[in-house]
Design goal:
single chain; about 375 residues; mainly alpha; ABC transporter involved in vitamin B12 uptake, BtuC; two-stranded antiparallel sheet; globular
């Protein structure tokens, strides 16, 4: 029997049906993973409301949140509601946003540069933000001044990297040139940051500079900062979501992407701008927090694979969950508060070593 002049082969139809079933099974598995992670994030957020030097049972937390939603909360007469609604809720929301932003930025940068060792600060945004914050602290600026200066210097550092790469690459810099330019500018700003610490007064200014550079949510947990970071997420994350299929094509190389009609230069600049905005906003709010944007995308690839359609949202949820849990340790381990950047380094480095050993075949 023939069909359009070609011999009909039942085994080809069976293979296509099998592939469709496998795709449906994979999509179902990815959706289940995403839903489970979101539920875990919600549970972790509720439990975290009771974690700290002043512990609150989960039952009371649920009652407080219920009264807040129904408009029956009385913050002026209930200290528990003050702690939960005015201190811990904005802090946990900020943890979720920062973890999601850094993870999305790290995954995007790793896809752009096609390098598993790339992190969100590869183009110098964290080093630049550190210098800006240090200057603001030395001149006696308040928290808002520190955040503005950190954000401005972080964005400025990336612009310097892009300008240097464009000058070296004659208007069309390759990814390797951008990475090398980022290393140079990061080293320059790191030296400036070390100079700021050397010039800082050891009794008053130096502890503030060092504590900010190690990262913390202690002074940034407010609804105003949450609103600012939500706006940054809308501006930075939405374009990344809309270009996920283009990131998948870009992973095969710029020539293949251009052959499919993608403007790789515009796509590259867009990814850099959005990722830099997310990273600079996060660093400006809570200081330098390492390893999130480097480790979380690797964990996500082991769970759902390299497809950016699911990789990006799952990375954001895992990053938010990881940040909430780490912040709980920072608040509850000792009577004071451990800088969150210290915990992410202590936890992130062993995880990354394990991931390297597990995936060493694909790294070579």
């Amino acid at each position: 029997m023939s069909l359009n002049g070609n011999e009909y082969k039942p085994e080809n139809s069976a293979k296509n049906t099998t592939l469709e079933i496998d795709d449906q099974s994979q999509n179902r598995r990815e959706k289940i993973i995403l839903i489970v992670l979101i539920l875990m994030l919600l549970v972790a957020a509720v439990v975290s409301l009771g974690v700290g030097r002043f512990r609150i049972p989960v039952s009371q937390i649920i009652d407080i949140i219920t009264s807040w939603i129904t408009g029956k909360a009385d913050i002026t007469n209930n200290p528990l509601e003050v702690v939960v609604l005015l201190v811990r809720v904005p802090r946990i929301l900020l943890c979720i946003l920062v973890g999601a932003a850094l993870s999305a930025s790290g995954a995007s940068y790793q896809g752009l540069f096609r390098n598993p060792l790339v992190s969100p600060d590869i183009l110098g945004v964290s080093a630049g933000a550190g210098v800006g914050a240090s200057i603001a602290i030395l001149i006696g600026g308040n928290n808002i001044t520190v955040q503005i200066m950190a954000f401005a210097f972080g964005i400025g550092a990336v612009f310097l990297v892009m300008a240097l790469a464009a000058a070296i690459g004659r208007g069309n810099p390759a990814t390797l040139i951008m990475v090398l330019s980022g290393i140079v500018i990061s080293s320059l700003f790191a030296a400036c940051s070390a100079l700021m610490k050397y010039l800082a007064d050891a009794q008053s200014k130096l502890p503030d500079v060092v504590f900010w550079l190690m990262g913390s949510f202690a002074k940034s947990g407010s609804y105003e900062n949450v609103l600012i970071l939500v706006l940054a997420m809308l501006i930075g994350a939405i374009p990344l979501f809309l270009t996920r299929w283009q990131m998948n094509v870009l992973a095969f190389g710029e020539e293949e992407a251009q052959a499919m009609g993608i403007n790789t230069r515009r796509l590259r600049l867009g990814i850099i701008f959005c990722s830099t905005l997310l990273t600079a906003s996060s660093v400006a709010m809570c200081g330098v927090i390492g390893w999130i944007g480097l480790v979380i995308p690797h964990i996500t690839r082991f769970l759902v694979g390299p497809n950016f359609k699911i990789l990006l949202p799952v990375s954001m949820v895992i990053g938010a969950l990881f940040m909430v849990i780490v912040d709980d340790f920072a608040r509850a381990t000792i009577s004071g508060e451990i800088p969150i950047g210290v915990i992410t380094s202590l936890v992130g480095a062993p995880i990354f070593i394990y991931l390297m050993f597990r995936g060493k075949r694909s790294w070579v």
